[in-house]
Amino acid sequence: MTESNNIIRNALAENRTFLMEHESKDLISAYDIPVGQYKLVENKKEAIEFANEIGYPVVLKLMSPDIIHKTEAKVIKLDINSSQELENAYEEIVLNAKKHNANARISGINVQKMAKKSIVEIILGAKRDHAFGPVLMFGLGGIFVEIFRDVSYRVCPITKEEAKRMITSIKAFPLLDGYRGQPKADIVQLQDVILKCCNLLMENPEIEELDLNPVIVFELGKGVMVVDARIILKEVN
Amino acid sequence: MTKMEDLKGFFNPKVVAFYGASNVMQKFGSIHLTNLISAGFKGKVIPIHPKEDEILGFKAYRNIKDVTEEIDLVVIATRPDLINNLLEDCGQKGVNHVIIVSGGFLEVGNKDAQDRMKKIAKKYNIKIMGPNCSGEVIAPHINITHVPWPPRKGGVSIISQSGTYATQPLIAVSAKIGVGISKIISVGNEVNTDLVDYLEALEEDENTSCIGLYFEAVRRGKEFIDLVERINLEKPIVIIPIGQTDAGTRSAKSHTAAITSPGYIIDSICEQTGAIEVKNSIEMLNLLNGFDSLPLPDGNRVAILTMGGGPGTLMSDLFESHGMKVPKLSKDLQEKLKPWLPPTASTINPIDLTYSDDMQNYLNIVPEILLKSDEIDALIFYGLMGTNYHKNLVKVPEYMKNHESIITMKNFGEMMEEFFIALFDELIEFKKKYQKPIILTCYNTREEKFVVYLQDNGIPVYYPEEGVWVLIRMWQYVNFKQSKER
To answer: Are A169 and B271 within 8 A, CB to CB?
Structure first.
C-alpha cells in the first residue's frame, strides 16, 4: 500500500504524530473502508460547488496540522442547509482557527455530507500494545462505551469468525439485531470493516491508535459509513 | 532439538552443583540443597564453597572448575555482586543450565549487571532460569525451592513469574487441595529463557496434563498467543494475570522488571484462545486439580447428591446461573432411586437425602444408578463426615465414657475408615467406567484420611461452592473446544 505509506511518511516527516481528518480518511479509504463523501477545498466557491453536488445538509471542518482538537477550537459546523449558511460558516471557522492559534496553518476545509439517520452508531478503535501488538475495540457509540463500558476487544490478527464474535459478544448486541421490530443492522459489512481495520494495523506499524467514531451502521444490505476518523502515529525504527 | 532437550539440564539433571549452600541452615542455598535431597533426588549434589570442605555432609569444592565430572545444573543463591563471576566459572566448566535464585538485577534497576549476565550466558551457551526466581519442582524427585513440600506426582504444571505464587500456595496443597504436580517453573526476570520457552517445553511434556500460568507481563506477545491457542485445545491452560492497576503495575515493575499490558488485553486473549482466566490462586489450583483428575463433561447436566438442603440449593443456583443445568430426573429414573433412599428424601434433583447413615447407598448404589443413566453428565456430592468427627463426638466427660452407646460410636469411628475405603474404590471405578466427572464436596480437609484417599486417587474434594466452580469452568472449556471443532 504505497498510498498509505505516503500519507504516514509525510506526517512523520513534518514531525506530526497525528493524521488530519482528511488524511485519516484517505488512509482508510485506501483500505476500502467506506467513508462518507468528503472533499478538501481551498475556498468558498469550491465548497459551494461540492455541496451542490452532494446535496445539503453538509458539514464543514477546518483541517490544520496545528489543531488536533477541532471541537475545542470551534472549527466544526454541522447541519448547514444552504449556500448562504455555508458562506457564513466558512468565514466563522477560519476566524475561530485564527483565534485559537494565530499561527495555525490551514490545509483546507473539509466538506462532507451530514450523515443520515442510521440504525445505530458504533465506535471502532485500536491501540497498539508493546507486547501483543494492535488490539481492536468495538462498541456502540455514546453512553454504551462511556458509561457502560460495553465493549469487546481482540488482539490482531483475527479471523472472520472472531470479528463476528466481537460484534455479537457485547451486551447491547440486540440493538443491532432487530430489537423491537427495528430493522437488523448490516453486521456483515461491519464484520468486513473490522477485518479491514485489522489489516490496516498489521500492515502499518506506525499506527499507534485508531479511532473511527462514529461509524454509522445502516440496515442489512446497506452497509456502514465512517463519519469521523482519527489516527495517532509513532515513529518506528 | 526439542525444547525439552534444549532445557534438559532443568528437567532431568543428574548432577547438581550449589553456590550459596553452607553449614548454616538458614541460608537459602542450604534450604534448596536440603529440599532436593528430601524429595528423594537420585543424582549427585556438589556444593561449591570458598572455605568449607564439607557442606551438610556432602563433599564441597572450592571452585566449580575443580570438579571432574560433568555438571548438568547449577543453582546459585549468593550475593548478587558475585554472580556474574561465578557464571563465568560455570561457562568455563562447560555448564549449560543455571538457576539463579538471587535478586538484585533489573528489578532493582541494575541493568548493567543483568546485561552482563546475558552476555556471559551467550558466550558460553548457558540457559538461565531467573535471576530473581524461586527455582523449580520436577515431580517426584526434584524440589529446588525454599518450600519443603513432598509433592504428590500428577499432571499439573505451573509456570510463574512470581516465585511466591509458584511455591507457597502449594502449602495449601498438602493441607487441603491435594493437587498432583508434574512441574513448577519460577521464571523470575527471564534473562534468557521465558514463559514462552517453558510453555513450549510443557507442550511436549507427556507428564503434563494441564498448565497454570501466573504472569505480570509477556515479553513475546505474539508467540505467547499462538502457543496458548494451540496448547489449550490439548492441555487446558488456566491463567492468573496480575499487575493491571496502577499500584499493581508499579509492583510488577519492581518485582520482575516486567512492563504489564492492560487487563482488557489479557481478557480478550483468554476469549480468543479459550484459556481460562481466574483471579484467585486457590481457585487456580482447584481448577487444575479438576482438569488433572477428572474426565471432561460431555454435556452440561449435573446431578447433585446431597446430605442437606442448603448446599443442594446453593449449588443448583450457581450451576444454573452459569450455563449448567440441574435437570429434573425422569419418572423412570426416580423410581429406580427410591428404594435406596430414605422416605424423606427428594428424588427430583438435587437428590436430597436429608440424612442417611447407609453409606453404601449414598456412595455407591445411588451414584451408579445416576451415572449409568443418560440423563446426567456429571455428579457432585455434598457431605461426608470423617474419623475426626467421630473422635470429637466421643470426647465426653469421664463419667459418660463407659456408656455402651459411646463405646459403639467410638468403635464405629475407628473402623469406618476401612469400610469407607472399599466404597471409595468402587466410586473411583465408576469414574473410569462411566467417564463422567465425580466431585465430592464437604468442609473437611486433608486432616481427614478419607479426603487424602479420595484426592490421591482422582476424586477431587472441595468446599461446596469451589467444587461447583470447577465443574462450571470445565464445562466452559468443553464448550469452547466444541465451538472450535465445529
So the answer is: yes
